[in-house]
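Batch manifest line 394
LIGAND: FE3-S4 cluster
JOB: complex structure
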Amino acid sequence: MFLTREEERMLDGEKGPAVQKFMKLLVGLGDILGAERLIPVSSVHVSGISIFTVGDAGVEFLSHLSETAKFAVAPTTNPAAFSPEKVPGSMPRALVEKQLSIVRAFEKMGATLTLTCTPYYTVNRPSPGKIVAWAESSAAIYANSVLGAYTNRESSLTALASAITGRTLLYGLRIEENRRPTHLIRLGFKVRSYFAASLLGFYVGMKLGESVPYFENLIAHDDLLKSLGAALATSSACTLFYHKGSILKTKALKTSTLEKICIEERDIMREDYPFSIGVHDSPDKVILGCPHLSLRELRKLCASTKGKKARSDVEVVCCTSSQVYKEARREGIVSKLLKSGVKIEVDCCPTFIPPEYAGARTICTDSCKLAYYASKKYEVYLADRASIVKSFFR
Ligand code: F3S
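JOB STATUS: finished
ARTIFACT:
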């Protein structure tokens, strides 16, 4: 792989052991993947923040790394297991300490602690054409498909490598010809809810695997695209999709030669998903916000629960970022939602919290991503937001 003089010096250890270690990682991977060279990144988003995803080995590795490493490009960070500002009493002190030391390690290296899977609602919203290195599959697919940035689906380690070296590999979806659509999807129905967008993404991912689908007649706003992309990236390795009205106006959009697939609404309502479809009468918890809710979603939820109160036997939780929470509070949305009995949690990912700490066994959500991962430990029901409000608010 071609390296510039500066990159060679980084590889030789002139910029310290941490830069050298991560340059070795990138160069080794680049050789395996056939990358021609490295390119500078303008934005990085790192995952692997929650103690429930990185474990003890992650705590040790990050604490050690933070002794010597500084980020060349300050990354935004994925959610933790809980907000460092609001430590839950249900978690053992040892776990809390481990989570806090992960957050402190990222802070020490110079990260911007957004603690959200939707960095694009915060300070990290790259403009079209920018080369970025984003981990977190739902964020990477959004960066490519909605923002028009250029990223592969980075792992926690490769995103960390990019933040420390300021470089990423030129391969995969950073190369124009690999961004061409591979399949044309013709929908026989309108996608109106987050639930439908999520199920559609999950279904297409299951059917096509790694692909670049073009949803020929899908007209959807950013929040629906966020739901669709998160689910698509859950059931497949897909990290880019096109839709009608996409900002990705490239010569790649030649669709006449693509394999066509027609999808009806009944196709996506399959019975072989690892979760159930429909509202459970009495789940322990309703969780909305995987990926984290936008301000627009909070506004809509506030409007639909106006004058209503959540059932006392069901805990209704919304997850969002601190930044969106602050904006929602300024608009008076937070106080209204709280009055309706909705709990709002920030900085955290509810999906991987073990049931013994979540205080729940049965969950209802409208996110296929949450439903898929949580179904390994919980009984999960997937329903649309309107039905959730109708069933759990009086
Ligand atoms: Fe975000 Fe966790 Fe879902 S990181 S996308 S809330 S699985």
